[in-house]
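Hi, here's the filled form for the chain we discussed.

Project: internal
Contact: R.S.
Residues: 599
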Amino acid sequence: MHELTEPALQALFDADLPIGLAVLDRDLRYVRINTTLCRFNGVTAEQALGHTVAEVLPEAFRSVEAFLRRVLDTGEAVENFQVTVNLPSQWPQAVDWLASYRPIRSADGAVLGVLVEAVNLTLEQRAKRALAESEAHVRRVLNSLFAFVGVLTTQGVLIEANRAPLEAAGIDSVDVLDRPFWDTYWFSHDAGLQDWLRDATARAAQGDVIRRDVVVRMKHDSRMTLDFMLAPMRNDEGEITHLIPSAIDISDRKANEHLLATAMAQFRSAFQSAPEGMALVEPPGLLTLVNPAFCTLFGYPAEDLLGQSVALLVPTDRRHDHNGLMDAFFSAPQERSMAPKRRIQGRRADGSLLDIEVGLNPVAGTSPVQVLVTVVDITERLRIHGVLEQGLREKTVLLNEVHHRVKNNLQLIASLLRLQSRHSSGEAQQALSDSIGRVKAIALTHQLLYETKNFAEVDLNQFLRRLCGLLRDSYPDAFSKVHIDMRTLTTAQPLSLHRAVTCGLLVNELVTNAIKHAFPDRQRGTVSIDIQDLPPGRVRVRVADDGVGLASDQGLGQGNTLGFQLVPLLGKQLGASVTQEDGPGCRFVIEFSTDGEAP
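And the returned structure, exactly as it came back:
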């Protein structure tokens, strides 16, 4: 056995070979066994050495014993035979072997043992399947990525590409594989980009990682902006074996960045040129940006304001309260005016105060939250407002005096007419009495305007109720046997001065006519006034009595009385329709619009 320990044989067994090796003596005991065969057989070297094949692999021995005996008996090798055996490590599955048995001879040619060479075909096939499955799995993973990934040789030839860049470009793998990366479809539109990529490939092959935004060609000759990276791939020894290009589509991001940059430029332009003072403030109330108008308003250069608290611009006696207000606002920021019910003053650099109006607008999406503060100097506005208020007060007093004097003058006219009637005949006296009623109806509108301090309009309900009171005072004898039934609206119905005067005269004529002529032979009678709302913007006034009614040949505008002749004229002036209704007594309906002035 001396020859079996020679250095060449020892080196052979120590080498990490893919082939299993063993030396058997003539009793078929293991004298040597390498690590590969131990792994194939599922035993350790200690379990094998000194033991026969039959002891170590009883099931397999039945299949190979004949081949081993032939080598020992004939001295001839049995080469490259395939056999299926059962191994303890693989039970109950059988394993396919490809083996060669060679004789080991002594110096005189005697056969001393057998050299076993074996390859586990089953493990080899499993390894191949595992490798294929692994490669397929990696391919599926790569193809499912939305990122663009490929593999280059160190010379820059593309040998792998995942599905995403091929589909985006509308090409097949055969169109780009085995070609220099810079000559592929994606880069062929730009010679400068090709030169850069050629240089980047050389640098990556030396170990550099290259990254840059590039514009590549895609389907239908469109362009796409990519965040592109080229990195070296190293083996276990640290040697660069391949280059890995990868990229993601950032076209939308670039477009959004452009839109953002445009929006920021527009904001800054508007911010800087705004006539109002504007500033950006962030918690706890620090100025981070101010425009020229803001600096001019408070008399500070921009560099003296940035980073300062807005409390610098608040009157000294208000700063404590102001800090609390700012803390409360930043705890729940929302768009609003600052202290809208209080007078706000700011403090200039020279210590002088100015009246200001402040708007607070949180900027969405900022963290910490930023607030756009708009400041307007309202000193001149307040001065003009004061002047206008003083003028309004003076005009109010003047209008009040005008209506008071008009009412007094109309009452004076009524008094003069009453004095005149005392010295007139019966027919003239009646005419003067009717005129007094008309004058009082006009005076009533000015009385109501004076009383309510509203110099534009009166309430129709109150006006007609007061008008009936005037009529009762003007005809006390007639009202002793006439009852006025008035039904007004539940809400106020405003009428302009001109409409109120005309409407009042109309109702005055109709009620006066009913009092004087509706009940010639009766002790009691009723005159009803009914106000109804007719949306939109119209009203109906019905004046009716339960008296004798009109003669069949008498209508509006007819007869000898001035009142009946005035009714159509007043209706036209009011823009109203005045109609008679059928029924007991005399019934008139006035319908008109409450909007605008009378025609």
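Let me know if anything looks off before we file it.
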